[in-house]
């Protein structure tokens, strides 16, 4: 009787946190699903958006969409109802989330590396590296590598290692009194992945900014393409580029770094529940913000979005020449 009472108290003492997380999951799920679907739809619908850089953005949006549309809703239901999951299902969902999260993080690196080669290297180098076959292999490896690391962990699970007495928040990577020790594997992989992606992002964008500052060629902040024949003095564009790079780096760092360092510290010492939950929700917020940080300053995405909102895309089906493409071509310098 004492054990049952103490267990019930322990399960209910974090009710406010569970309500907060369930609400956050619901909001993230709706907004993230709409944003990621919109980006994928625009790229698939407009020829001018079908570029190598946007292919990497779409790859990240696909993984983010899976998290927002499939993982977050069921987590919101489980957290709000307090229903205890089957151990096998819990392990499976932990692995699925780790796969989608890692693909999303690796997509950030592919985008940064693509822009780095595009801006700092010769056009011949860029076209050689980012041929269609090479691009397809890069995207495929982003999915294969996390799966290769994940399968041994999944097959090594045993039910008694992941059994829980009551429903807990799915903070997989934190080790606590009732969090399974098997999660330390995904904890270490998650932290290493985040820290390595942060280093790649900062290196690529710092080199891009340095290149723009010292080169006669300036970079358009709207579409991250090399612009020729611009005047040597272009401080306003430099400032806009610097602000854009700073925003991308800050959003990625603020949403991932607290989580990574909390994970590493939590492997050795217990963390306050509020700190764990805050860093976890910041990481989940990244899946919602990804479509915005890569498209909000892209003029082609803006034109395509205005075309969809204005109904021009639907009108184009009734004519032989697409007026949207024609309008974009006429407005391009």
From TrEMBL:
Residues 35-294 form the G-protein coupled receptors family 1 profile domain. InterPro entries: GPCR_opsins, GPCR_Rhodpsn, GPCR_Rhodpsn_7TM. It is found in: Membrane. It is a multi-pass membrane protein. The keyword Transmembrane helix applies. Keywords: G-protein coupled receptor, Membrane, Receptor, Transducer, Transmembrane, Transmembrane helix. The chain crosses the membrane at residues 20-43, 55-72, 92-117, 137-155, 185-208, 243-268, 280-296. SUPFAM superfamilies: Family A G protein-coupled receptor-like. The keyword Coiled coil does not apply. This is Probable G- coupled receptor 88. It comes from Pelobates cultripes.
């Amino acid at each position: 009787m004492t054990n049952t009472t103490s267990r019930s108290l322990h399960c209910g003492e974090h009710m406010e946190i569970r309500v907060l997380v369930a609400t956050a999951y619901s909001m993230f799920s709706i907004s993230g699903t709409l944003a990621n679907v919109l980006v994928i739809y625009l790229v698939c619908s407009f020829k001018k958006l079908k570029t190598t850089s946007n292919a990497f953005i779409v790859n990240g949006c696909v993984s983010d969409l899976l998290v927002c549309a499939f993982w977050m809703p069921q987590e919101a239901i489980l957290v709000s109802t307090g229903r205890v999951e089957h151990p096998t299902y819990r392990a499976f969902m932990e692995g699925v989330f780790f796969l989608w999260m890692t693909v999303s993080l690796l997509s950030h690196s592919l985008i940064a590396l693509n822009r780095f080669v595009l801006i700092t290297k010769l056009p011949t180098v860029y076209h050689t590296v980012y041929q269609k076959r090479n691009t397809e292999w890069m995207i495929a490896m982003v999915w294969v590598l996390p799966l290769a690391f994940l399968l041994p962990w999944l097959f090594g699970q045993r039910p008694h290692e992941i059994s829980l007495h009551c429903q807990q928040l799915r903070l997989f990577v934190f080790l606590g009194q009732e969090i399974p020790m098997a999660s330390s594997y995904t904890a270490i992989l998650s932290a290493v992945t985040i820290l390595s992606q942060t280093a790649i992002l900062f290196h690529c964008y710092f080199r891009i900014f340095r290149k723009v500052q010292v080169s006669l060629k300036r970079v358009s902040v709207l579409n991250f393409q090399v612009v020729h024949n611009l005047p040597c003095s272009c401080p306003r564009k430099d400032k806009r580029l610097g602000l854009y790079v700073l925003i991308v780096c800050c959003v990625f760092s603020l949403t991932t770094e607290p989580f990574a360092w909390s994970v590493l510290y939590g492997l050795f010492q217990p963390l306050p529940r509020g700190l764990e939950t805050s860093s976890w929700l910041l990481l989940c917020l990244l899946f919602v913000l990804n479509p915005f940080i890569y498209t909000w300053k892209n003029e082609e995405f803006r034109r395509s979005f205005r075309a969809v909102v204005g109904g021009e895309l639907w009108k184009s089906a009734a004519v032989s020449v697409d007026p949207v493409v024609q309008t974009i071509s006429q407005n391009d310098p």
